[in-house]
Write a structure and sequence with these properties.
single chain; Glutaredoxin; Glutathione S-transferase Yfyf (Class Pi), Chain A, domain 2; 4-stranded mixed sheet; about 55% helix; Glutathione-S-Trfase_C-like; Glutathione S-transferase family protein; Glutathione_S-Trfase_N
Length: about 210
């Protein structure tokens, strides 16, 4: 396994998923902070590393790697016994589907709810943008609620995978953004189980140290 990994992350951001994945694998790495509220992701030195101006960014001996799905898949290949994802076949495809759903389906709605000013310049439109985003987020999150409603512990059944961490992160941020928690008892229960996971706790502590 290559050494010298650096993860650029922001407290509370979706980079927590990659951070948790690294910790779960037991992979040595250095954590570097990016404060999004201060616009540090747009500094020339950071843009030189990641022209997208976003987190996460994983610096590797092979070059920079961005996007949560790519980072997780690469780490899973490097650490096949860590259990980030099911090993193969239909279970792996389903786990990747959940991870993609959170990152490409739910995350953009969360962004609109949290930052309507980035979507529409007219301040008079911001409340409508936020309301529409939260309504669609609630509708889409019902997919996860319905899946978990059969009593399973995790999205894939009895075994945790990194898609659960992604959903848990999204859930926490959605609540902070005004999502009504009432209809999502099963998702809330998954988030409670995540809170007891050692690597989840380690990720929160690592984020807190970046402040």
């Amino acid at each position: 396994m290559a050494d010298g990994l650096v993860l650029w992350a922001a407290p509370g951001a979706c980079s927590r998923i990659s951070l948790t994945a690294l910790l779960h694998c037991g992979q040595a790495f250095r954590l570097a902070g990016v404060t999004l509220a201060r616009g540090e992701q747009l500094r020339p030195d950071y843009l030189a590393l990641n022209p997208k101006g976003k987190v996460p960014l994983l610096q590797t001996p092979h070059g920079p790697l961005t996007e949560t799905l790519a980072i997780v898949c690469w780490l899973d290949e490097q650490h096949p016994l860590a259990g980030l994802l099911p090993r193969a076949g239909w279970p792996r495809a389903q786990a990747l589907s959940w991870l993609a759903f959170v990152n490409a389906g739910l995350h953009p709605l969360l962004y609109r709810a949290r930052m309507p000013q980035r979507i529409h310049a007219d301040t008079g439109a911001h409340a409508g943008v936020r309301e529409a985003a939260l309504a669609e987020l609630q509708a889409q999150l019902q997919v996860a609620e319905d899946t978990l409603a059969d009593g399973r512990a995790w999205l894939m059944g009895p075994h945790w995978c990194i898609a659960d961490e992604a959903l848990g992160w999204l859930w926490t941020r959605a609540l902070q953004s005004g999502l009504a928690p009432g209809p999502f008892a099963a998702v809330a229960a998954l988030a409670d189980r995540l809170a007891a996971q050692p690597t989840h706790q380690d990720a929160l502590r690592a984020e807190a140290a970046l402040h």
